[in-house]
Write a structure and sequence with these properties.
The protein is mainly beta. It contains six helices and 22 strands.
Length: 343
């Protein structure tokens, strides 16, 4: 259940974020390869207005908004630029390694999980234990003023007044998980959140990791997949997850303003399962059309490209011609690597 602080933050930011999808809603749609298990990590604070990170040279939305092309127009295979990560952690609990990076129009997220937890379809099992750093773009001053006026416990985070709250959640098995979230505003228009879950002494760990966050570094979120032919008004979100630089899955999901149609492109080192499949020509090669094994609520086409697998899924009512046309508009860039995974 959300804490009182989380509820308060949502109330303040709702009016500013009415048109922005909540990142938990968006990311839940990316996980058909995991059987759509409930995603509990990225569900702490409501989405914020995308204005703040431009002030520090990170216009998140500019990197993620695909320019729509007219049906039948030529797809330009141009790789979108890497998205820089302006903040990084310099301390993590022993044994935690990088497992995920996410970019939406309003949030950049980095996630670390225990090493050696195994994988499904080339991506790590969703662990109940994790450390996550979110970089939010937020309306300048609003969140800081709200937190200051609340009764949230206060703490010094690298010379800035922060707020540290304990909360509980429920695992997939019904077990109660405890965690801590540290929230602070290091500069006008930018909000950082450091969340730890299912880690002993979570309050102390959250503070230590939060105080280790510094600016700078060379880490990025690379963009190896991009859409081409999309309906007007669509925006997309990117997720990279894996267990090592050689075992990973990239998911890019595009949704309209009403979330009535989701298009997901999945670029992976692992072959996806596809039920009731028939042959189909995708990107000039023989592929397959059918129902993703772990996501019977969609239809998908799958094709092997440059040693990896491209899957494009849409709602089950989508016909093969539309799916194929959309898949033909997806660009992939096999030379992009993820050296940070598992480290």
């Amino acid at each position: 259940m959300p804490s009182d602080l989380e509820t308060l933050i949502r109330v303040v930011l709702t009016e500013q974020a009415e048109r922005a999808p909540h990142r938990a809603t968006v990311l839940a749609g990316l996980r058909w390869a995991r059987g759509r298990r409930p995603h509990r990590r990225l569900a702490v604070v409501a989405a914020c207005v995308a204005v703040g990170l431009a002030a520090i040279g990170v216009p998140i939305g500019l990197h993620l908004t695909t320019q729509p092309l007219l049906a039948g127009s030529q797809v330009l295979h141009v790789q979108q630029p890497d998205i820089p990560l302006p903040y990084r952690v310099t301390y993590l609990p022993a044994g935690y390694v990088a497992s995920m990076r996410v970019a939406t129009a309003t949030d950049l997220a980095q996630v670390w999980e225990p090493a050696g937890q195994g994988e499904v379809g080339g991506v790590p099992h969703q662990s109940d234990s994790f450390v996550q750093l979110d970089i939010f773009s937020a309306a300048a001053g609003d969140l800081a003023q709200t937190l200051s006026a609340s009764d949230a416990p206060k703490a010094d985070i690298s010379g800035v007044q922060g707020y540290v709250t304990d909360d509980t959640s429920e695992s997939d098995t019904g077990a109660t998980l405890t965690g801590t979230t540290a929230t602070w505003v290091p500069r006008r228009g930018v909000t950082l959140e450091l969340t730890v879950r299912d880690i002993p002494d979570s309050y102390d760990v959250a503070l230590r990791v939060a105080r280790s966050v510094v600016t700078g570094g060379i880490d990025v979120i690379a963009q190896p997949v991009s859409f081409g032919d999309l309906p007007a008004g669509y925006s997309d979100e990117l997720e990279i997850q894996g267990t090592s630089p050689s075992r990973w899955t990239v998911s890019r999901t595009a949704t309209g303003a009403n979330h009535d149609l989701a298009i997901t492109a999945i670029w992976s080192t692992a072959e996806p399962g596809l039920d009731d499949r028939t042959t189909a020509t995708v990107q000039g090669q023989q592929g397959w059309y059918g129902t993703p094994t772990a996501s019977p609520a969609t239809k998908g086409v799958v094709v092997a490209l440059d040693g990896h697998w491209l899957t494009v899924t849409m709602p089950p009512s989508t016909d093969l011609a539309t799916l194929t046309r959309t898949a033909n508009g997806v660009s992939v860039f096999p030379n992009v690597g993820f050296p940070w995974l598992g480290r």
